[in-house]
Structures are given as structure tokens and as C-alpha cells.
Description:
The chain is built from ten helices and 18 strands. By secondary structure, the chain is α+β, with helices and mostly antiparallel strands. A hairpin with a 2-residue loop joins strand 16 and strand 17. The longest helix is centred in the last third of the chain and has 18 residues. The radius of gyration is 24 Å and the shape is globular. The protein starts with 5 loop residues before the first strand and ends with a helix.
Amino acid sequence: MKKCIFYFFGILIFNPFATLAQNARQLKNLIHNSEILNDHFTGFALYDCEKEEMVYSQNADKHFTPASNTKIFTLYTALNMLGDSIPSIRYTIRGDSLIFWGTGDPTLYRKDFNSDKVHYFLKNAPQKLYLAYDNYEGNFYGRGWPYGDYDAYYQAEISSLPVGGNLVTFSTDSQSIALNIYPRYFSRFLTCDYNFHSSSYKIKRSLTKNTFTHPDLHPEHNFEQQVPFKTTALLTKTLLEDTLKRPIQIVNISTPVNAHTIYNEESDTVYRALMLPSDNFIAEQLLLVCSSTIGDTLSATKAIEYSKEHFLKDLPHTINWADGSGLSRMNLFTPESIIALLKKVEQNVSDTARLHRIFPTGGLTGTLKNAYKTDQGEAFVWAKTGSLNAVHNQSGYLITRKGKRFIYSFMNNNFVRPTSEIREEMVRIITAIRNRY
């Protein structure tokens, strides 16, 4: 029989009649012949779900900086520790006093989530309100976070009871350039800095306090910028009072074992917000929410250690796990460990449609919307991306044209070329596997 050889963008790829070993060799050639992938540290692993074996791996037992691939670990921890709704606050009633504690719920008073349950409970409670704020054990930043990004939207501070994602949103609409500020409380702290030279309107915040400045310019229509604010117990109390229109006192009381819980958003809604746009704040706060289910203090470290002990002991390699989002370069995982984790996630979720809704979908949703093209309208890849300076990774699930299901982890560290070139090369190779395997 005449030998079938296929080419994709000029590179030899899979023979559909080949053995597993032959396909592995062809995949090896595909990666090894890539000029883009051979000028930096690349790890790759492709796992056949039906045969339950690795098709091919390269540096898959080596540790890489995962960036936002870390969020897969956070997701799996939450899937195991939380139910179908997110615990939002805990409370107890003592006489004429209602004492409440935050759980770290990242959704409270964010415009993209519904906070009605907590809002109306606190607003309409007949008792006096007392906020017990001192139940968070940790810094306002995760371990290893860079301080230079303190006023970037993706690095909001961590707290036990966040309000509006601990962000100030500055915006205009299509009809007016009048600046809207949410929460309105922060409008008093915005001033013009005539020494702030910029070609466009933007907001800066002081490093150590909540003072915001803009250049001597007007914003344009449809302007929007989110800036983290410095969190304190007093500020949280003030923002809640401003929202609830009633006084609140701060107390220092440990959470009792028999405290009641108010649940807010559906968990899958939050998981989609975690994974699709790769929301760092939700990732960090979800670890606090997880820790709230095992003790009276909120601690990302405790949640991580609990997850490693109870859910992740059988990973093939030791993991260095420092934060929930992947902003920290202290995180170190191997492609093989991520493959094992993705298998666990799939088993936990068990519903393929649900799994695909949670992960970014190539050509359709999230961080993969513009990376891939669908195959005649059909999506074929569902994966989490991860990017930092000189880091770009992609790990997830793949279905080929023949209906074969694979799990893959593609990790790139220490490159000096543009990230877009790394992304395009990964997409090219994953699409080649889709087309011919």
C-alpha cells in the first residue's frame, strides 16, 4: 500500500495509519524542527485519554514557571472543597447584635455578580451590625508578587471581605465624558496632577495610600480603567456603611464553630470568571473561601497545604505552589503533573459539557477566543493559558477530527522573542494534532 504522508504548513505530521510509536516520532520531529520552540526551554506532554498512556513528552518531568496555569490547581481545590454556591459571609446573633465575618468571597458588590442575598440580609437585619474583620492570615499580596504592579487592575489586594473586587472603576459612556467612579466614595480622592505628563487620559494611584491622580486632560467616550485600592478594616466598614446606609462597628472576635453561612453566587459562575478571563483576584480569594471551610481563619497557605495533603499527594512530581493566581514566580510545576491534575479535574466534573464551559474555548470564549479558529464552527480545544514576562503556557483538553480525546500541557519559559510568536506556534502544533491524529 502506498505510504500516506501529510504536510501541514510545510512540516511533516501524522500518518493516520501509523502506530503510537510512529506518531510519537512524528510529533517529536514536529516540535524539534520548530525554530521558534528551540531557542528557549520548552516542555510538552500529550496524553491519550482512551488508551490511558502518554503519546509523547519532552522535558515533561522538568519544573516550569506555570503563570496562570496555577489557576487549574485553584480550580481543582475549589471543586473539592466548595459546594454548588460560594460561602459569602458567616454570622452569629448575640442579643441585639449581628456579628459577621467575611469568607473571602470575591463576588461581593462586583457589578458582574449578584450580591443580593448578602446585601438584603445585612441591610434588613433588625440587629446592630458588627464586622469582625481580623480573620485573614496573610499579606495583602500573595507570596512572591511584584510590587511594581500595585496600581494594575490584575493585582488587587487580598482581604477577608472584599468590596467591588477591591477595585475602583473609573469610566465614561458613549454619550458623555463625565467621569463615573465606583464606588462613589473614592471620588473625593481624585485630583488633577499638572506634573503628570501623558499622551492620553489615565489614572494613577499613590503607592501607599488611596490618592488618585489624572493628567490635565479629559477622558474620551467609553473610557474605563480599574485601579486597586489600599484595603483596611476601616475602609471596608466605610464602604459597607455607604452601600447599606446603616452604621457598622468593627470588633475582633473569632468565628464560632456554630456560625451560620450565607451563600451567594453559584460556584460554576465564579469558576468561569476565574478561568475564562483568567481573573487573578478571584483565584486568590477562592483559596481564602476554601480555607474558611476548614477553620476560623482565612489563609491561602492553609488552603494550599490542605489541598496538597488531601487531593494532590499522587501527582508524579513535587510541586512548589505559592499563590492562587500564578502571579508569583515561586510556583513551579511539571507538564506531567499538570496532565495528572487535568485528569483529576475531568473526573471531578464528570460532565463534559460543564467542563468545557469552565475552560476557555478555542475560537469562542476567554483567553483562547482569538488564538484559535474553530474547525467549520466546531471547537476542539479547551485550555488554560498562562503568561508572564518570558513565560507562555497552555494546558487543557483536545478532541481530534477522528474523535480522539487528549490532554496536553505545553509550557514555554525563558524566551526573548515576542509572546505572540510562541502562542502562534503552540496553536499551529495543537491544530496539526487536531487535523491529523
